[in-house]
Structure formats: structure tokens, C-alpha cells
Amino acid sequence: MDEFPLPPPVVEPTPRRVRVRLGATVVADSRRAWLLDEISSRGFPTYFVPLDDVRDGVLADSAAGRWSVVADGRRVADAAWTDDRFSELKGHVTFSWEALDWYEEDEQVFVHARSPRHRVDALHSSRRVQVFIDGQEVANSTRPVVLFETGLPTRYYLPFADVRTDLLTASETVTRCPYKGVARYWSHPARSDAAWSYPDPIPEQPKIRDLVCFYNERVDIVLDGTPLDRPLSPFS
């Protein structure tokens, strides 16, 4: 079984202008931010900005290196914090990605910062991909887009025409990925949220638009006649 271990954290300066907003108020604007490139139980990649680049008066209720953020008539508790594990981040603060809006240059970024070590390569292929759920074939395609993403199993994005869509129902689940966009999910009677698609991926990933992909971890995939092991990943 393939395993995908988590990489060690890296702290480095970023040349990107980083801004954070709460409502209509820019609470931080920095051209000297640091990137904490980390995937762990503590969180995902994020930017730390110097306290001098934080708008006066927006940090309140300081306690143990955490603050509420007050702006635009709102108060968000525990929405800013420091990290004392790294000397480079002394005097710097990061913010909640869920509660506030983040921008790299003039483009909004969702969920977490983009790691410069993280690649997403989508390639057209003619390999035969079959997908089975409890022994029933639910997809059979020779025109996949194969997506290779750092730290994750290889994914096979298939045209809907090559999928038994009569066996799938649209789910209410929606997720965001900073590297691909907003995903909509599909369920099978035997597997909830077994597959997903990107109706409108970010501009960097046009090849996966309106294709469907199944979780390798939850279904059985046969590639060119060879069954693949189910990988062990954060989605297992």
C-alpha cells in the first residue's frame, strides 16, 4: 500500500504581497511576510506578517499569543495568533483562513497559502481506467486526465460520458482547494461522496473542468488491466 508521509515544516520569506481582510477592512497588508510551509495536525501553509503591517486597533483581547480581530463592525474571537516555534516568526502574526479573506497580490486565495513545493500536473492520457464499487463497474475510460499532485495519490479525472452517472447522485458537500478550486461531490448508494468534480477550476487547472474523479482510497481502480492498491492518505 502506498503511503504519503507529511513533509517537515519550512519557514521562508515570500516575495508576494499579502493582504488580509475582514469584511471591507484590510486588517493586514505586507510586502515582507513569511511563509510557514507546513502540513500537520497544527494546520496548513500560512503567511505570517509583521505586527507593524497590521492595521492599528484591529487586534483585541490578547491572551497567550492569540487575539480577537475587530473590524468592519465585527469581532472574531481567536482569529489571529503567533507561533513561537520558529525564531523567524518572532514579532509576526497570522490570521484565520476560515474567518477572514486572504489575497496574494490582487487574487483571493482560499483555504490556505499555496506552497512553492506543491505541484499539480494534469496530463491527458490514453490509459484505460476502470472504477469499481463493490464489484460493480461505475466508470470505464481511455481518455482520462491524470493528475499528479505533491503528497497525494495519482488521481484519474474522467469524462462524465464514460461514467455510470445513473449510479451517482449529486451531494450537498462542497470543498475548496487552493490549487484546483471549488469541488462538488457525487455519491454512490454504497459510498457517500465517492467522487468529485470541478465545474469551474482555477485558471491554472483548465484540463480538469467538468471531469469526475473517484477517491482511490474508497473505490477499486484498475489501470490498464492491473488492479491498483488503495493508497493510505489523509482521505483514507
Give a description of the structure.
With 236 residues, this protein is mostly beta strands. The chain folds into two domains: 10-109, Domain of unknown function (DUF427) (Metal Binding Protein, Guanine Nucleotide Exchange Factor, Chain A); 120-227, Metal Binding Protein, Guanine Nucleotide Exchange Factor, Chain A. Strands 1-4-5-9-8-7-6 form a seven-stranded antiparallel sheet, with no helix packed on it. A seven-stranded antiparallel sheet has the order 12-15-16-20-19-18-17, with no helix packed on it. The chain has no helices and 22 strands. A hairpin with an 8-residue loop joins strand 4 (34-37) and strand 5 (46-50).
Task: Outline the secondary-structure elements.
Blueprint: E1 10-13, E2 18-22, E3 25-30, E4 34-37, E5 46-50, E6 59-63, E7 66-71, E8 74-81, E9 92-95, E10 101-104, E11 107-109, E12 120-124, E13 129-133, E14 136-141, E15 145-149, E16 155-159, E17 169-177, E18 181-188, E19 191-197, E20 211-214, E21 220-223, E22 226-227
Antiparallel strand pairs: 1-4, 2-3, 2-10, 4-5, 5-9, 6-7, 7-8, 8-9, 10-11, 12-15, 13-14, 13-21, 15-16, 16-20, 17-18, 18-19, 19-20, 21-22
InterPro entries: DUF427 (IPR007361), DUF427_sf (IPR038694)
Domain DUF427: 18-97, 129-217
Pfam family, one: NTP_transf_9
